[in-house]
Amino acid sequence: MNQHADPHNSSYVSRLVNHISLRIDEREFERVAGFARLFWSRTPEDDLQGRNVEDDAGATIDSWRKFEHRQPDSVDVFVENPQHARDGWQSKHTVVRVMVRDMPFVVDSVLIALSHDGLITHQLSNVVFAVERAADNTINQLSLERDSESRELFVYAEIDRVDTEGVQALQQRLERTMADLLNIVGDFAQMKATLAEVAAGLRDAPAPVSADEVEEAVAFLEWLGSNNFTFLGYREFTYKDGVIRQVGASLGSLRGRAPASERKLAEQPEYTRNFLMEPALLSFS
Question: DSSP letters of the chain?
Answer without folding.
Answer: ------GGGHHHHHHHHHHHHTTS-HHHHHHHHHHHHHHHHTS-HHHHTT--HHHHHHHHHHHHHHHHT--TTS-EEEEE---HHHHS---SSEEEEEEEE--TTHHHHHHHHHTTTSPPEEEEEEEEEEEEE-TTS-EEEEE--TT-S-EEEEEEEEES---HHHHHHHHHHHHHHHHHHHHHHHHHHHHHHHHHHHHHHHHHS--SS-HHHHHHHHHHHHHHHTTTS---EEEEEEEETTEEEEEEEEEETTTTSPPPPPEEGGGS-HHHHHHHHS--S----
